[in-house]
């Protein structure tokens, strides 16, 4: 007999889809923090235990979720952020697929507590492996707290795939650092096994944030440059060429406040520093690009870290031009001499 086609029920479908959105504790944290940012929070706390494998808790002081929406929020393709296909070309929020909560809840034991400003009481929703366990009224401060316990407890293949606690913890620290740098006006607190990893003060000062996260030695060696060129605003915090690394891990790029990986920006950085640092050494820099969202395609990868510039060559040239200007500015020259 031929096998007949049947539709997967929603719980299995979500479990399969979860693999694309969340592949490790760090990606759960990225999605949840992005939700907190989209909810206009100015204070976000990330707490992990056991490298996030058994415990991830994100709390924010954002808008909260309407009590009638708390269950819908866990459905796949349920989002408050876009309504029609045209919205896709001008996305300003970090989320828009409506997949994260459904995916995370499908592969963990999740508890959400939320209260919106327009309501006196909050809601607490518990979902285990995609199944709603409870939805009750609860007293709560304004904002949302999500607790994700025992990630991948029901997906052995994913569970096995997680790396050592040390590796998973460093992925987490890395992603929270980048989110904190992308949003200097939000105060971030990262706590690992009850110890504070870093706190940013949320006062908008990027150099200050770089100091809180990567230390004063890097922060005090930064050159600041900013210029608008061809409708692209480029802001760079560039470490002096005398301070380099053996890898590109501290080259961090943001486009419209989104942390991204981009060969285009990376090439622009290499080009700008080309004559200043020796081969096999790499610059440390933080580059912020602002441009019309219509000129970028971010919808090419579910994790949304890769983007495509529609006018790649010009973007590269523009960024490289501005960075060079900063690096070759007068203020730098005495500093280089000083160190010789
Ligand atoms: P998306 O972010 O793509 O819209 P999610 O599955 O991440 O999809 O979230 C679904 C919806 O739940 C969001 O559109 C938002 O309305 C609501 N939501 C999730 N997290 C929060 C939060 N921390 N604060 C307020 N609303 C939230
Ligand atoms: Mg989201």
UniProtKB/TrEMBL annotation:
Coiled-coil residue spans: none
Domain DNA mismatch repair protein S5: 210-324
Family to which the UniProt record says this protein belongs: Belongs to the DNA mismatch repair MutL/HexB family.
Function recorded in the entry: This protein is involved in the repair of mismatches in DNA. It is required for dam-dependent methyl-directed DNA mismatch repair. May act as a 'molecular matchmaker', a protein that promotes the formation of a stable complex between two or more DNA-binding proteins in an ATP-dependent manner without itself being part of a final effector complex.
Protein name: DNA mismatch repair protein MutL
Gene: mutL
Location of this fragment in the whole protein: 1 to 340 of 686
């Amino acid at each position: 007999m031929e096998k007949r086609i049947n539709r997967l029920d929603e719980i299995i479908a979500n479990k399969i889809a979860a693999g694309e959105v969340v592949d490790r504790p760090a990606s759960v944290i990225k999605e949840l923090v992005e939700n907190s940012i989209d909810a206009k929070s100015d204070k976000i706390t990330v707490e992990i235990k056991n490298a996030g494998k058994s415990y991830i808790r994100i709390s924010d002081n954002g808008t909260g979720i309407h009590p009638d929406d708390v269950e819908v929020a866990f459905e796949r393709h349920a989002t408050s952020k876009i309504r029609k296909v045209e919205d896709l070309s001008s996305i300003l929020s970090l989320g828009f697929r409506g997949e994260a909560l459904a995916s995370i809840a499908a592969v963990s034991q999740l508890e959400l507590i939320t209260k919106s400003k327009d309501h006196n009481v909050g809601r607490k929703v518990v979902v285990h492996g995609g199944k709603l366990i409870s939805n009750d009224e609860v007293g709560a401060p304004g904002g949302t707290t999500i607790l994700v316990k025992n990630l991948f407890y029901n997906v052995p293949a994913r569970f096995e795939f997680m790396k050592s606690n040390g590796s998973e913890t460093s992925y987490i620290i890395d992603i929270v650092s980048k989110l904190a740098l992308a949003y200097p006006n939000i105060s971030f607190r990262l706590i690992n096994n009850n110890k504070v990893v870093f706190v940013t003060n949320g006062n908008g000062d990027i150099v200050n944030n770089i100091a809180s996260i990567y230390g004063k030695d890097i922060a005090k060696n930064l050159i600041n440059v900013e210029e608008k060129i061809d409708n692209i605003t480029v802001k760079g915090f560039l470490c002096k060429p005398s301070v380099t690394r053996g890898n590109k891990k501290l080259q961090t790029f943001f486009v419209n406040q989104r942390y991204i990986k981009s060969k285009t920006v990376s090439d622009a950085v290499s080009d700008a520093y080309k004559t200043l640092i020796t081969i096999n050494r790499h610059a440390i820099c933080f580059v912020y690009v602002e441009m019309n969202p219509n000129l970028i395609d971010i919808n090419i990868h579910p994790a949304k870290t890769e983007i495509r510039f529609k006018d790649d060559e010009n973007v590269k040239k523009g960024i490289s031009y501005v960075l060079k200007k900063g690096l070759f500015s007068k203020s730098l020259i005495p500093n280089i001499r000083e160190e010789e």
